[in-house]
Amino acid sequence: MEAVTAPTGHTSATGGPATPGQGPSPVEPVASGPGADALRAATPAPPPPAGSVLPSRASKITALVAAGALGSACLYTAMVDPNSSGAYPQCPLRLITGVDCALCGGMRATHALLGGDIMRAASQNLLVVLLAPFALWATAQWFGAQWGVRLPSLPTRKWMAPALLVIAVVFSVVRNLGFGPGPWLHSDTF
Predict the structure, then answer these.
(1) CB of 111 within 8 A of CB of 77?
(2) Cα-based torsion angle of the residue sequence 59, 64, 69, 74 in order, rounded to the nearest 10 degrees
(3) Does any domain span residue 75?
(4) What's the whole-model pTM score?
(5) 54-72, pLDDT tens digit by residue?
(6) Spatial contact of 190 and 82, defined as CB atoms under 8 Å apart
(7) How many CA atoms lie within 13 A of 142 on its CB side?
(8) Of 153, 155, 156, 171, which has the fewest CB atoms closer than 10 Å, so is most exposed?
(9) Strands 4-5 and 11-12: what pairing?
(10) Domains contained in the chain, number
(11) CA–CA separation, 48 and 50 (whole Å)
(12) Could you give the CA distance from residue 112 to residue 97 in angstroms, rounded to a whole number?
């Protein structure tokens, strides 16, 4: 039996039109002959499977630039001590009111963490020390995704962002109390 081309462009061995969107059936002949190579070259490649997005060149360049910037910032923070240097900006809230916000002491804590002194970092800003592993993992996930490496995701829920905001506010209030854990949580300079 002779193959016939259906109006949809598919070939049907029975002479009738092929089912649209289905592609050739297993019994249909495969294109061969002088124009077959051109037909195969003109056919677009199938899309990648769902969930497997290949990183673009631009995302890789972005990741490299971000890694350079983040690495430079970490190196600077590790080398220049915020406790004795005026090279860092002061918290506007602390400058105006004298009250510690949730992030006051964060640069000093980061400096101590980069130097491996966890206790000193915790005395500067306990919240930064507790959140640092999560921030580090999220950063590694982002960099990995830019290079096509998929790392396990941190569990997230809708309530987590508001809960973190409440924790930050409570932490700010408690660290400014003159009693209980307040004095230890206050970010005094060394």
Answers:
(1) yes
(2) 120
(3) yes
(4) 0.64
(5) 678 888 888 889 999 999 9
(6) no
(7) 12
(8) 155
(9) antiparallel
(10) 1
(11) 6
(12) 26
d(CA 118, CA 134): 16
- Residue 180: pLDDT over 80: no
DSSP annotation of 5 reads E
CA–CA distance, 54 with 156 (Å, rounded to integer):
24
Dist CA 112 CA 125 (whole Å): 10
Rounded CA-CA distance 28/3 in Å is 8
Report if residue 30 sits inside a domain. no
pLDDT in tens, 96-114: 998 889 999 999 999 999 9
For the chain, give the number of residues.
190
Residue 26 is assigned to a structural domain of this protein: no
Q: Which two tokens stand for residue 9?
A: 């462009």
**SS3 category, 11:** strand
Report if residue 114 sits inside a domain: yes
Q: Which domain holds residue 76?
A: 59-149+157-185
For residue 163 the two structure tokens come to: 């809960």
First to last CA, the chain: 91
